[in-house]
Amino acid sequence: MQHKVTRFAGSTFTHVILAGYSILALFPIVLIAINAFKDRASIFDSPLSLPNAESWSLIGFEKAMKNAHFFSFFGNSMIVTVTSLFFILLFGAMAAWALSEYRFRGNRWLMAFFAFGIMVPIRLGTVSILKIMVSLELVNTLTALILVYIAQGLPLAIMILSEFMQQIPKELKEAARCDGVGEFKIFFQVILPLIRPAVATVAVFTMVPIWNDLWFPLILAPGEETQTITLGVQQFIGQYATDWNAVLASLSLAVLPVLVLYMFFSRQLIRGITAGAVK
Amino acid sequence: MKKPFPWHILVFLTPAFLIYAVFSAFPLLDTLRLGFYTTSETGSQHFAWLANYRMLLFDPNWSEGFWNAMGNNVKFFLVHMLIQNPLGLLLAALLSMRGVRGAKAYQTLLFLPTLLSVVIIGFIWQLILSPLWGVAETLLGYVGLAEHFQPWLGQEETALYTLSLMSVWQFVGIPMMLIYAALIAIPDEIIEAAVVEGASAWRIFWTIRVPLILPTLGLVTILTFVGNFNAFDLIYSVKGALAGPSYSTDILGTYFYRAFFGYQSQLGSATLGAAVATLMFLVILAGVGVYFFFVQRKLQRFSF
Amino acid sequence: MKHIRLTQGALAAALLTAGTAQAGTLTIESWRVDDKALWEEVLIPAFQKKHPGIQIKFSPTAPTEYDSALQARLTGGTAGDLITCRPFDKSLDLYKKSFLEKLDGKGGMQNFPASAKVAWQSDDGKDTFCMPMASVIHGFFYNKKIFKELGLQPPKTVAEFHKAADAVKKAGKTPIALGTADQWEASQIVFTGIGPNYWKGEEGRKAIVAGSAKFTDAPYVAAWTEMSKWAPYLAKGYSAQTYGDTQNLFASGRAAMVPAGSWDIGYYNQQGVDFGAFPPPVQKAGDKCYISDHTDLGIGVNPKSKNKGDAYKFLEWVGSQEFADLYTNKVTGFFSLSNHLIAVKDPVAKSMIDWRKTCGSTIRLNAQILNRGEPNMETELWTVNSAVLNGKMTPKAAAERIQAGLSKWYKPAK
Hints:
By secondary structure, chain A is mainly alpha-helical. Chain A contains 13 helices and no strands. In chain A, helix 1 packs antiparallel against helix 13, helix 5 crosses helix 7 (about 140-165) and helix 8 (about 170-180) packs antiparallel against helix 9.
């Protein structure tokens, strides 16, 4: 009986905290959403009120859509983010596996070499990167962005994934090796499925900086055909007057694709839990 | 007992190594090298050994700004360590409890802020905290605290902490996700055994689950450290590269930006900027070094 | 190895959708995001009527990123053909690094007075590297409706200005829309806007440059003293008020006056405010007035341009009567710097440009030469001027800090 009471109290407590913080996390976002549908004067006059007949306005969305390239901006962001993400996860997991599983000469040095990349802001290498891209004739291509983002994302992915790989019980790998399974097969068929929650976690927060990055699109691919959505939105941020309607509208639209990606990966995370029963 | 050449290691490492070496490590090292040069008016660069560093650390024009930025950065980091990470741990612990209804929905909601562009985050928080349009004041009014409202983003004493909390709000999803992933990876049998023995949930959490995820907590700490000492976007988008009022929100990232790219009529210098970046690198390296050589070793002994 | 090449090949093949700009297209680098539609819909078509076949792309970068992005693109060799120039040292620096062509004697340059070219010349005046495009004038806007309701007239003297502000405050509105969150307004609009009346415009500016006057001298301190009296007139919590907030405050009719620049005319017109402009008030009735008439935009040619011939054709057109007319009247509040006679149509813009007839014109106090050393005067002024408005620094302390900073590196000031 007492057990039940504690449990009930416990779960109420849990929900109070989770719901409480969710409101805090959500409130500004709701505010963004409701103000994206209002005219400029009402955004500032009464930011808290819902759009009504008087303040309702789709001008922000209209302005965003008016740009013929707006949807191709989305496409570009999508291609860049998904492709970079795929290669970061694949190459990152492979390298993390090699570094955490095999003892070989230079292992520690390689670890340090990769760790270097999370300690120095990659912006710093901008001019060198631009020069490399110019000589490879990759300026104004999405490939240039993808290559830089892969390079930028790898160190963190390797660091986190190798941390998780170390936690995989030895017996699993040894059992497979005793059965004569090859190293590649062990990696792709045993290890990758096991660390799926970790891969999903890394994916989720590698994709956000890529999606939201302004700097490299500005330098490497500012052409109209290769602009990403974040760069595209910049056209509404003026020297003296910023078109907040258009910014709010286009940026709240821009959240949707990442949100979909996030849902996809967080499902992997949940699946990982059920797969955890294997252990 | 000579082993065959481990081709598989090479195959696993090569793709990551090549892309990273060409498009990140080489450009970064090339730029760090510039820290030993100075730029003349015509843009040519000359080797100057430690001249930039002497200027940054001993010329008051630069050193005051540098130490100010460093101090602010430490405060920025402490706020994340004291609020963001414990909060992330709490949320992850609650989410990973068995039978919490709507855990998945909560998880998505809590992660939403992390997905947003910093432009929109800066805008919305400025709107909320603005003394003119009254969102925060109205909300505080509902709980009878309206008289405590202040223009937090505009005051030297409060601006940095306000920005730190905005950053916590934005990024708390990351430690939460990492810790969550670690918590759900704990084999059920361990927990069940403890439950059978009659241990309370609270006890299980502190004596079994937390020790098991210590490596992840270490990882979160080091990622927070590296992330905070490289932070830039939020402060830049809310306060500009000048990080006012009176540089009270200036951190190493904004200080670096001004040195490297210049600001307004202040000219940027790639060589001086590279020196600032090298200093930042050394600071971060020191932190990471401490982590790897002391903390992580202990942690590994602690976990199984 | 093979693995990599294969992946990369596939990657490139799948993604190489876009080519670089086609040959024969001129690209204009600019920070004027605000004018994009205008360039595309008015200016470029007007040019193409005269020069069919030359393709032009106006490719603006957000103003805060402009300098750094341009610098990177110039260094990497991917910058556009025509480059919008910031005034004074920023562009001089580009010229010294051979990122801008020398323009003396090029077609169109003859249409500009020497005073307009100063902002884009080497210190000895021998080389000019950008064609002057436009200046902005600083002053105050007032809400006509509020002024009428309270029976106020646009103030001419400082005393009248304070009287008007007091009256507005009594009526429960914000007298002056101004914040210090973004810092630049405090310096570029307020200090160098109202200041020339105290230091007599060019006379006081040149005296500082020559080292014959110090910032701690009475005229300069007086400008800061006036600023330090504004706090009661500003909106609650103005230390967190951004420039965007300021615009909204004035546009929504909650504030009666706003220290502003001519660039905002277009914005407030669009917001439907009924407003007028008055120049910075003078100290005593009958004093000569001075205005900050700041050379703000120029345009230059990238030496690495592949279409230099076309670029010069375009430049010549920028120096023409047609461009001056279009630019002044379409980009309301940016005034052409050329010798051509232009009829300004917008009433507020016209009243501001007419100040040139009665007031002495000057540029921002620190724009020329004084920004070169360390500590940088422009960033120092932003910090100090916001602190004075915030009541965190006395006028005297402000003057001392700026003077001390200057005399650290500037010989004439020692």
